[in-house]
Structures are given as C-alpha cells and as structure tokens.
Design a protein that fits this description.
This protein is an alpha+beta fold. It has a domain of 140 residues. 37% of the residues lie in helices and 18% in strands. The strands form 3 sheets. The chain has a 6-stranded antiparallel beta sheet with strand order 3-2-1-8-9-10. The protein has a 4-stranded antiparallel beta sheet with strand order 4-5-6-7. It has a 4-stranded antiparallel beta sheet with strand order 11-12-13-14.
Length: 494
C-alpha cells in the first residue's frame, strides 16, 4: 500500500507539477492585475450628462419600437457615441437598442458606429477598427453572450501613457461592453489566461473546459495530499547518521521534501479550494427555491412624467444624471439616476413621486419578503459595516467590480437552507444571496483560496506579504517536483 502511495505521488507529480507551478505563478499576478472587465462605475465615468432639453422621446414611444411581443426585463437610458439610447434587456439574454432622439430601433451595428462609440468612450485618442469576432482571449465571459459578435476597436493612448487599449463594442446595442488595456493584456498572459486554463477555451476542447478544470484540480489535490502523507512518512524524529531528518541525499529531493513539509498543507488547501471555486458537481447548490426575479412593470399612462422632466427633477436635487434605469420593487416602478461619481437618486415613476436617496426601510423589507414568498422572515438587520460574509474586494479581483454598498439590509429567512438576502437600499437590488452551502463555500473557497479575512484585507501589505510568501513556497514545491520528474523521465532504462 505504501509503495502504491509513493508511485502514485511520483507519476501524478510528473503529470501535474507544471500545471501547479503555473497556477501559483499566475495567482500572484492576479493579485495585482485582473482579467479585463468593465464595471458599472467605470462605465459611468465615461458617459456625458444626459441633457434634459430635447433629450428623448417618451417611454411609451420607445417601448413601441421593441420587437412584437417583447417584454423588457431591464431598461436603461444611456449615451452611446454621444447620443441618448434606450437599452432594453430581453429574454434569452438578448438586447435591443432604441434611439432616444426619434424612438426608432437601432439597426445593425457596423464598423462606423463601433468607432463612434469607442471615440466617445475614450475621447481624444486615435481609433482604429480591427475586426468583428465572436470571442477572443479577453472576452470569454458568458455575460457578453447577448452582445456577440463584438466589434474590436484599438485606441492609441500612447501620448497619455495608457498604451494601446482594445475596446469591445456590442453588435446588438453599439455600447462598449469591455475594455482591455495594454497592461492588462500583457500581464494576463501570465495571470488569468494561465490560471483558468484559457488556452483550452474557444477551440475543440471548449465544451470540455469545465470538466478539464474539475478533474485536473481533483488530480492535483490528490497529488498534494499524497505528497503531504509521503513527506510525513519519510520524516524521522530521530536524525539519520548524517544529522538530517530527511532520508534523501540528493539536494533536489531533500529540498522537495522539506518544502513539502513546510508548504504542503497550504498547497493542498489552495488546490482544493480552487477546485471548489467552480462548484463541481453542484455541491454548493442547496436545491431550495431561489428568489423570484423581479418583473419590470412599465405601464404607460398620464401619470408617467416625461424624460426631460425627470432629468430636471434629479438636477434640482443636486444630481447630474448620466444614466437612468427603470426598476420595479414591491409593486412600484421607479427610475434611478446615476452620476459619474457613484451617487444615485430614486424617483417613483409617476408625476407626484418624490426624489429620494434610498427606499424607506418598510418598503425595502416588504419587497424583500416577496422575493421568497414561500419562506418566513426570521430576522432583519441593517448592516453598516463590512463583516465576514459581506465585504468589498479590490476592483481588479474576480468579483471586485460588483458593488457592495453600505448600508445594506440583510433579511434572514426560515427556509430549510436558512437563506440570507442582502438588499441595496438605494434601489432594492439583490446584491448577495447566501444559504447554508454558500456560507460553507465562503470558508472553503474565499478564505482558503484568496485569504479573504477582513483583518488581512484591511491591513495591506500584510495580506500581500503573506500570500506572496505562501505562493512562492507552493511554486518551489511544484518546481522542484517538476525537476525531479523530468530527471526521472530522462533516466536511462536498462
């Protein structure tokens, strides 16, 4: 049995040590340069204020331009190429764009429209149209599926030190949906592109990518665990004749042994938590009903104000709106305005509505109850500080672009999964959902993989130092194992 353990560890190491070394190396890169993304806050900063005078057709006319029978699930008024445009989210992850000037559906987006959108996004930079594509190394996200194909425009920011940035423009709406700077692209070849095995995406193995991640990580977990066991079995409490507690005489074997004893447990927890990040075999799905998605109600009538009036009312309250979004919460339809500095206001979609900074606590709680009507509400808590389960990560990290505003209302339900819902008072948006299994994932993935522990996250560079040292240890364990494996393969057989 012990021999099988040793042989299994040896041949798993030969097969996987290169992968593991690259995982540790790329993980350090991802601490500082994330996969390209375009978050809401970053996008809003590029938009001009919406002009109230002669801005837009009324909402009824805009909705009439949607395909027959289409019912919008989301609706925004934004600017694309310097012009006001309504963006409607439809079923099956589809989008439709309607001109705010004349209320007509925007036709197919070509190269000229893509260039205009790109120039408005990064004004003053030379723009060059490259191509239209379905997917490339920087657009693997499923969130972009409704915008494909994507027009690629290269912006030359050499004069201001930005380098050449690639902008990806939606063929459905003409909106810039992703930016990838030269810095992001360069470092990501050593970062997320390697870490998530993206060389396997987009080709013949694309359909098997998730399974490859799962079973490669599972095999690497067994490799780390078996190495830890072998290392402990080979360590002697009483030194050998040469004074060493390791039986290995060759330097590389001895270094691998000692490095494994020191960093083996960390290596095991990192690889295992990385496996759990993709929710293999749906182990973190509780199987209980999830919150019912809110339906957008946009019934037109004499009570509905005009767009210009709405913008004037927000301006009178001190907010210069760059984007409007309609939403329905607790049976009432609102329009939310956002500026480029992270501020927002809310207005009931009727003439007698009052501009407000947030929903009233009673309205927020009532709307939250409707999200899980089959469960009872056990407790409510208005959270004003980040804690173990609700916290903000740096923007470039995997989930850092997701807004985690404070305060936030936490609703705790008495369903079998003990669901918690976190609602943003600014608009009633469900910003986080947790249940028993997802709280377990918080331990097994977020803590053990990225060390998301508030005392560390709030006291950088302590977090950086500890993660880099630990990553270096895992890298050296893997690299030494790779060297040993290659030497084993190169050994003459006779």
């Amino acid at each position: 049995m012990k021999r099988l353990l040793f042989l299994g560890h040896r041949w798993l190491g030969i097969a996987l040590c290169l992968f593991m070394a690259l995982w540790f190396l790329s993980g350090v890169v991802m601490m500082y340069v994330g996969y390209p993304k375009l978050g809401t806050a970053e996008r809003l900063q590029t938009l001009p204020p919406l002009a109230s005078a002669g801005c837009c057709v009324n909402l009824e006319q805009a909705l009439a331009a949607l395909p027959a029978g289409a019912r919008p699930r989301s609706l925004r008024l934004t600017s694309i190429g310097g012009r006001p445009v309504f963006i409607a989210g439809l079923e099956k992850n589809r989008f439709a764009a309607i001109s705010g000037h004349d209320g007509k559906a925007v036709g197919s987006i070509g190269a000229e429209a893509a260039l205009a959108a790109a120039r408005a996004f990064l004004p003053g930079q030379p723009a060059r149209y490259l191509e239209a594509l379905q997917e490339d190394a920087w657009t693997h996200s499923r969130a972009l599926d409704g915008h494909r194909p994507l027009h690629v425009v290269e912006m030359d920011g050499s004069d201001d030190g930005r380098g050449r940035t690639l902008l990806y423009v939606s063929a459905s709406t003409g909106e810039v949906v992703r930016d990838a700077s030269a810095t992001e692209r360069t470092w990501n070849w050593l970062g997320a592109w390697l870490h998530w095995l993206y060389p396997l995406r987009g080709g013949a193995l694309d359909g098997w990518w998730t399974e490859i991640i799962i079973y490669t990580s599972l095999a690497a977990t067994l490799l780390a665990l078996s190495g830890l066991v072998v290392g402990l079995l080979r360590w002697r409490r009483r030194p050998y004749a040469n004074g060493s507690r390791s039986p290995y005489r060759k330097a590389m074997l001895r270094w691998h042994h000692w490095l494994g004893l020191i960093f083996g447990l960390l290596t095991f927890t990192w690889i295992l938590s990385g496996l759990l990040s993709v929710n293999p075999w749906k182990v973190f799905d509780a199987g209980t009903p999830k919150p019912a998605p809110a339906r957008l109600e946009l019934a037109a009538g004499t009570d509905a104000p005009g767009i210009g009036e709405v913008l004037q009312r927000f301006r009178a309250d001190g907010l210069e709106a760059r984007e409007l979004e309609w939403l329905t919460f607790a049976g009432t339809t609102y329009v939310q305005a956002r500026d480029g500095q992270g501020h927002s206001r809310l207005l009931s979609w009727q003439r007698q509505g009052v501009v407000q900074a947030a929903l009233a606590p009673g309205v927020l709680e009532a709307g939250g109850r409707q999200l899980l009507p089959q469960a009872g509400l056990a407790a409510t808590h208005l959270q004003t500080e980040y804690d173990w389960h609700y916290y903000q990560r740096t923007y470039h990290s995997m989930t850092g672009h997701m807004e985690k505003a404070l305060p936030v209302l936490r609703l705790e339900f008495d369903d079998p999964a003990h669901t918690w819902l976190y609602l943003d008072p600014r608009n009633g948006a469900l910003v986080q959902r947790l249940d028993d299994r997802l709280r377990l994932k918080r331990w097994l993935f977020a803590l053990f993989h990225s060390w998301d522990w508030l005392p560390l996250l709030q006291h950088r560079p302590l977090w950086d130092i500890l993660l880099i040292v630990a990553s270096l240890g895992g890298f050296l364990v893997s690299l030494s194992g790779l060297v040993i494996g290659l030497r084993r393969l190169a050994r003459p057989r006779g």
